[in-house]
Amino acid sequence: MNLSPNETQALVQKTARDYAERVVMPRAAAIDASEAIPGEVLQGLGDLGLLAVNVPTDLGGAGAGTVAYALAVQEVARACASTAVTMSVTNMVGETIAHFGTPSQRSHHCPILAQGHHGLGCFALSEPDAGSDPGAMKTTARRDGGDWVLAGSKQWISGGSAAAVFIVWARTLPAEAGARGLSCFLVEGGTRGLRVGRPEDKMGLRGSSTVPIELADCRVPADALLGQENEGFKVAMMALDGGRIGISAQAIGIARAALEESVRYAKDRHAFGVPIGDHQAIQAKLADMRTQIDAAELLSLRAAWLKEERRPFTREASMAKLFASETAVRVCNDAVQIHGGYGFVRDFPAERHLRDARVTTIYEGTSEIQRLVIARSALAV
Ligand code: CAA
Question: How far is the C-alpha of 249 from the C-alpha of 91, rounded, in Å?
Fold first, then answer.
């Protein structure tokens, strides 16, 4: 067993850390306040291969593997959680197209997503009435001549206001219910019949847009079908398994930032004549934060390693996502507590970390869904 990153992984980690500290971190508060990530920040991620870390090099990616990807997301999330989710979802969409796409879908979309100049990859699975249970979706796709015509509403689409391409799930066998008879389609931003709604006014991740979309008889060609017809549910599940590793890494990065801020504050701030870090009540919090973050990182990197080894990793990805996201919320809450009143105001980043961490227990599968996946696997033994 070797817990050290190899040369490629260490290089990707260092590249991401340097860029995050130099370019992203100084802009994080402004990204949150202005509700926008500057185009040049995303372009910089693209130039460094960080929007397609695990996409093959012949498709414009870095081809560096899932462990490198998880390490890179952590570094970017430590600097800015909004930028990290944008990076994570674009990586997930690029990987899904690289895995399931036809040669022409792969060679068209993957390089575009890797670059970051032309827009983001977006994942349009959830609907207003179908989140944890995507099998309840109502969006349909019917054949019309050589085309597919999509109709319905999607919700909670990260990055949707700057999409290059959406992966859209729709029911292609109307007589089937649940997970059966779903297919997925590549729908480019700006396609006629695709209407992007007003961004949600969110608690956190305010720099990353989250939008609803309407598909009003949105017509796409036959070759927009991604993967096998009627087998779209499995594409979603496999993409989300990988996506959950990304969200675990994002949560760890946010938690690391909150811990670092807490340590700094505990050394600077005095109470009862000594730095508050000299008080055991604060030390106990810092010790628990550090331990839980390390445990989350081990779970996250184990899931990433299993994926990279092409071994089953569904359960491990859910465990990583569950533990890391709940750890991030706990750690960020403790960071606010350590900062006292200063934790509750925008002059310090602690409150942003807590707001940003909160959604990690919700999107790409709630904690309740992760527990369901883990429990099913335990009961199946
Ligand atoms: N990999 C491959 N196949 C899988 C799979 C996986 N991880 N999980 C299930 N399947 C297959 C099953 O084997 C089954 O196949 P067969 O029909 O051939 O037997 C089929 O899919 C149906 O499986 P289930 O019966 O287990 O399906 P279910 O309806 O009970 O749902 C679930 C399972 C795990 C609860 C799933 O619905 C789920 O993950 N829900 C959460 C959805 C989610 O994470 N949404 C987030 C949306 S993205 C987002 O957050 C926005 C963003 O942009 C960040």
Answer: 13
Q: 163 alpha carbon to ligand 1 midpoint, in Å?
A: 24
Question: Which residue's C-alpha comes closest to atom 49 of ligand 1?
Answer: 364
Both structure tokens of 101: 């796409």
Position 175 scores a pLDDT of 86
Query: Which residue's alpha carbon is at the smallest distance from atom 37 of ligand 1?
Result: 133
364 assigned to active site: yes
Among 218, 144, 225, CA closest to 184: 225
Query: Of the listed 308, 326, 351, 364, which one is catalytic?
Result: 364
Average pLDDT over residues 120-131: 97
Show Cβ contacts of residue 186 under 8 Å, excluding neighbours closer than 6 positions. Answer: 97, 101, 105, 109, 165, 166, 167, 168, 220, 224, 226
pLDDT confidence of residue 184: 98
Q: How many residues does the chain have?
A: 381
Q: Give residue-wise pLDDT tens across range 359-374.
A: 999 999 999 999 999 9
For residue 1, the model assigns a pLDDT of 85
